[in-house]
Amino acid sequence: MERTFAMIKPDGVRRGLTPEILSRIQKKGYRVVGLKQMMLPRETAEAHYGEHKERPFFGELVDFITGGPVVAIALEGENAIEGWRAMMGATNPANAAPGTIRADFATSVGENVTHGSDSPESAQRELALFFGNGELL
Ligand code: ABT
Ligand code: MG
Questions:
Q1: Which residues form the active site (predicted)?
Q2: pLDDT, averaged across the chain
């Protein structure tokens, strides 16, 4: 069993995709062990995307992710980190495989509907950033 951090980004929430995405998670069989809709404080967003601090798109990225409510989700399941990334598809929707969330719904690299941790280290770091002690089942 593995845990990962998933997030529905502001574009996904704004477009009413939350039920569709939760439905896909449920059909896949992952257990939702944490769930909340929230506005991201700027400090949390900057910490979350810390690895991209020096990239030219960092400011835009933080503006986007703090620009509306997100849905933070903690998932548990076998191979959940890779499995959830596979369900999302490639970062750039133009390269995302058919049937993935990004192929079906994302409009651009910057607004790509969902997030998923990319390694066990990221998953642990991001779960701790978004969920406090006692918030996870
Ligand atoms: P995240 O789930 O947001 O981390 O996306 P993913 O891991 O698939 O992709 P990475 B490489 O981590 O991108 C993080 C965010 O930065 C955006 N981005 C990325 C750009 O806007 N331009 C770029 O050239 C690149 C490489 C896409 C991701 N986010 N959002 N939202
Ligand atoms: Mg990433």
A1: 115
A2: 97
